[in-house]
Specification:
Layout lengths: L2 H18 L5 H19 L6 H4 L10 H21 L12 H9 L9 H21 L6 E3 L11 E3 H27 L6
Helix pairs in contact: 1-2, 1-6, 2-6, 2-7, 4-6, 4-7
Length: 192
């Protein structure tokens, strides 16, 4: 399967996820539309590339396109679980071992045996699940206490709405990273 077919197939799966949430209106529709827009820009950076190219570092950063998509998938999965399960879904950062940190670092790389098609499929599946969650949550104001981590203020709580805004911001930030990586790879840009 060619990479352009893979991106086209993955985009069709995302369209199906959008179809499943088409009756959503108001704030939820706005959140889902903004997230879909930034997901598109992130996926678009991989158009026409091979697995090898999406695993290549092209800047001083450790980041690669395949790794960014893996990371954003993991972030979205973790925050969706947090909305439903609370801080236990994310664990205690102070209790992470070297092996845990190594697994986290692997999120940012396309590992041997991983493919662009595989990471795009995983991303599309998580997008579908997240979209369903946003569409069916009883209350976007419902809060959960943040997990223990040095980057969170102790005792803080986030609403489902704030979590979704964070996921949108993270996706947009990494779509920008991906655009720079792609431009460094072969000069292609998402816009312009």
């Amino acid at each position: 399967m060619s990479t352009s077919t893979t991106v086209r197939d993955e985009t069709a799966k995302t369209a199906e996820a959008t179809e499943a949430t088409r009756d959503v209106t108001g704030e939820r529709a706005d959140l889902l539309a903004m997230l879909a827009k930034h997901r598109h820009f992130l996926r678009f950076t991989t158009r026409g590339l091979t697995d090898e190219q999406t695993g290549r570092r092209t800047t001083a950063s450790e980041l690669c396109l395949g790794g960014l998509i893996k990371h954003v998938t993991s972030v979205e999965r973790g925050w969706a679980r947090f909305v439903v399960e609370g801080p236990s879904a994310m664990g205690d950062a102070s209790a992470m071992t070297e092996a845990d940190w190594a697994r986290r670092a692997d999120e940012f790389r396309l590992l041997p045996g991983e493919t662009l098609a595989g990471v795009l499929d995983a991303y599309a599946e998580q997008a579908r699940r997240t979209d369903e969650l946003v569409a069916t949550l009883p209350d976007l104001d419902a809060t959960q206490p943040l997990p223990k981590a040095p980057w969170f203020e102790e005792g803080s709580r986030w609403s489902a709405r704030r979590v979704m805004m964070h996921v949108i911001a993270e996706t947009a930030q990494h779509a920008g990273h991906a655009d720079i990586i792609r431009e460094s790879l072969d000069g292609a840009k998402s816009m312009g």
